[in-house]
């Protein structure tokens, strides 16, 4: 029996609470290990003497983690329903805490790459979450410094303890937040490195101001504080760059970098598509251009729309000659029954999904390949079957589904159909293109193809207008070239005069 939706959500929420407690226990264990490493000879004595601090730590970390949980519960409920997301968020917190601890404890307290967390968070999550989680991360480091022996073990003397605690929290918070804004515009892995350098500027200004009283006492300390903070910012960029691919793979996350790599024409499946199904490859390039414009117009992820469009028809690789765009003179469908033809055509969605999953492409892209024809009928072969045998079951001539589940899948469904229809048109005037876009969208609406995704009527209208505009760019009117030819002396001649022997 199919599980009720509310039961399913309740079960997933139960898992997320369990995962939250598991992550909390793991963080406490990690902080305990830090305390032992800080003072291997007398950690037990330290804990016995500082029991109230230890209790404060247990409660504070619990509330910080609870705050994360409640943030997602009220702000981004969908994230909470996927256990993988919770593990990603807390793994980021663990990894950043451990790395900061190692640098602070064994190199220099100021060399902690505190902005690394925020840089990773913006690429693996989003800007809003990155800013919130960076604040939590700053507080977490503050609580660890305040309630454990980490600061003293890192060489901070009792006299500078309070200043260091507060300045460190502020610097972690501010440099992380600056990093989020700087990293947000990074489009290549190389430019991510620069984020660390940019972050160093506001961080150094803060350090110069905070440590100003030190300059008269010990200027060497003052200069080293600035030097280590610059190093920490650069390290943040370098470490984020090194760790990002690991997180991308481990949690199958789509970052802007991974999407760009997937849409490079060197990507293995695209090379195959270009070689084995050139017609489909060219069609996919145009669909990608259209889908990207539509995604921008309705505020969707343009990079994801482009990548998903590049791969939407890879299922055709199984039998490229079964699809019009790859045929030359020979048409396979002239020799087989309409039922078999329809089976070849409709299988490309499922074949594409399987091929993409087998090649470890992100599930978001594979789902688009599976959903981009929804449950639409394959009209041409249905009509052919009816003409041959007088009757046919439409279910045998319809795609298997599922219906598009996301706005990106809906955009690609429309762009795909519009591109194919416009390509077949003799008259590509804006009026005719507008007419075809309207009929493609209306037909899909009538057939309930958008019933399971959250695209609105207004967005469908924006998509239509965007497609008309974009297609005018793709199939623009060509300039009528003048009928002039040039002879060897580079002089214009009448074409008739060039004909040999008249
Ligand atoms: Fe397709
Ligand atoms: Fe297509």
The helicity comes to over 70%
Ligand types: fe (ii) ion
Oligomeric state of shown chains? single chain
Number of helices: 23
Radius of gyration: 30 Å
Low-pLDDT runs: 498-502
User: What letter string, H or E per element, gives the SSE order?
Assistant: HHHHHHHHHHHHHHHHHHHHHHEEH
**Would you report the number of β strands?**
2
Describe the protein in words.
The termini are far apart. Strand 1 and strand 2 form a beta hairpin. It is elongated and about 90 Å long. The longest helix has 34 residues. The chain has two domains: 249 residues, no CATH class; 217 residues, Hypothetical protein af1432 (Orthogonal Bundle), CATH 1.10.3210. It has a two-stranded antiparallel ribbon with strand order 1-2. Helices cover 71% and strands 1% of the residues. The C terminus is likely disordered. With 502 residues, the chain is mainly alpha-helical. The chain contains 23 helices and two strands. Helix 7 packs antiparallel against helix 9. One fe (ii) ion (FE2) binds next to helix 15.
């Amino acid at each position: 029996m199919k599980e009720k939706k509310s039961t399913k959500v309740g079960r997933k929420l139960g898992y997320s609470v369990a995962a939250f407690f598991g992550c909390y226990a793991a963080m406490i264990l990690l902080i305990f290990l830090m305390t032992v490493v800080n003072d291997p000879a007398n950690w037990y004595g330290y804990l016995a003497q500082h029991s109230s601090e230890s209790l404060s730590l247990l409660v504070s970390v619990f509330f910080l983690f609870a705050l994360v949980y409640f943030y997602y519960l009220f702000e981004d409920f969908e994230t909470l329903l996927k256990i993988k997301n919770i593990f990603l968020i807390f793994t980021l917190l663990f990894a950043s805490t451990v790395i900061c601890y190692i640098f602070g404890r064994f190199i220099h307290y100021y060399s902690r790459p505190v902005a690394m967390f925020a840089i990773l968070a913006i690429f693996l999550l989003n800007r809003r979450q990155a800013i919130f989680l960076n604040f939590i991360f700053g507080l977490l480091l503050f609580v660890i410094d305040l309630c454990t022996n980490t600061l003293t073990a890192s060489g901070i003397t009792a006299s500078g303890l309070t200043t260091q605690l507060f300045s460190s929290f502020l610097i972690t918070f501010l440099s992380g937040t600056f990093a989020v804004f700087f990293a947000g515009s990074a489009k290549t892995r190389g430019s991510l490195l620069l984020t660390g350098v940019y972050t160093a500027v506001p961080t150094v200004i803060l350090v110069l101001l905070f440590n100003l009283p030190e300059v008269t006492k010990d200027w060497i300390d003052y200069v080293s504080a600035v030097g280590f903070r610059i190093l920490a910012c650069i390290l943040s960029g370098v470490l984020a760059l090194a760790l990002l691919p690991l997180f991308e793979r481990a949690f199958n996350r789509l970052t802007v970098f991974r999407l760009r790599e997937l849409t490079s024409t060197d990507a293995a499946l695209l090379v195959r598509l270009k070689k084995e199904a050139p017609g489909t490859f060219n069609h996919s390039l145009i669909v990608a251009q259209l889908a990207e414009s539509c995604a921008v117009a309705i505020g969707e992820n343009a990079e994801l729309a482009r990548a998903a469009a590049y791969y939407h028809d890879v299922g055709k690789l199984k039998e490229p000659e079964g699809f019009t765009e790859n045929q030359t003179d020979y048409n396979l469908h002239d020799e087989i029954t309409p039922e078999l033809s329809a089976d070849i055509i409709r299988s490309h969605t499922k074949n594409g999904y399987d091929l993409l999953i087998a090649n470890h492409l992100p599930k978001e892209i594979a789902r688009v390949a599976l959903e981009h024809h929804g449950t639409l009928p394959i009209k041409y072969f249905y009509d052919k079957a009816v003409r041959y045998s007088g009757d046919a079951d439409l279910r045998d001539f319809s795609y298997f589904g599922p219906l598009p589940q996301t706005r990106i899948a809906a955009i690609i469904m429309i762009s795909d159909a519009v591109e194919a229809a416009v390509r077949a048109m003799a008259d590509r005037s804006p009026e005719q293109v507008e007419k075809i876009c309207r009929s493609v969208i209306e037909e899909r609406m009538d057939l309930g193809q958008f019933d399971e995704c959250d695209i609105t009527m207004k967005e469908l209208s924006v998509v239509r207008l965007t497609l008309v505009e974009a297609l005018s760019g793709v199939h623009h009117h060509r300039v009528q070239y003048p009928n002039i030819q040039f002879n060897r002396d580079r002089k214009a001649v009448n074409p008739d005069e060039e004909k040999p022997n008249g």
